[in-house]
């Protein structure tokens, strides 16, 4: 009788183990194993590169792309480029929304396979990820508040003696540029660019270091923001890393990186004029909320 009970107990344990294994496998199963899907991670909160909206409607008649696992939609320059690449590669596009401060960790964890998120290719990031050639070239700028007396600034040297407080987005290459602003105080940096611009509007910070497309996008819906385009002879030194915006894959996933680069080359996505035209389109299509 004891032997029968032990056999029954063992059978129950094995059955439970198999059931748990089955459930675990189902939980992990997603499109990561499906090579017909291009899984892309982005903030969906960084207009005009990428943003979120409640419907798929766009002013030009095109459709925004569903955000995986939500009832929201994404669009912007990054989404436009991702759509073009997915089409060229014969894949279905899948957009994953992720916070900027964990965008690399989520890539490493396999939540998606590619980052197309307005990411600058820096030496620090190249140590951890593989990058394509740039899919956009941006200009860095300063954002100040209208009426602050800083709107007429043309170069960094003109900020000497003004004792301004600086801000930018956390985890970006702009953080490394802040110490080039003379006589400045380093203020708080923020997780999103929207928070950076809010800091300028409410006077928490005097100067935000950011890229021109994002600044121009914000100025469309924030009348109290002014953009300073720095003179070529009086700008940041070594900011080229933040002007080269590239697509990233996991460090060892060079095959995928090369596949994407091949698609970029095939559609001729190395023409700066075409990039700028597409960015202008993205800026014009963003919802007022972004």
TrEMBL record:
Pfam families xrefs: SBP_bac_3
UniProt keyword terms in alphabetical order: Signal
Ranges of residues in domain Solute-binding protein family 3/N-terminal: 37-282
PANTHER family named in the record: AMINO-ACID-BINDING PROTEIN YXEM-RELATED, MEMBRANE-BOUND LYTIC MUREIN TRANSGLYCOSYLASE F
Signal peptide: 1-24
Keyword Translocase recorded: no
Organism: Wujia chipingensis
Domain of life of the source: Bacteria
Protein name: Transporter substrate-binding domain-containing protein
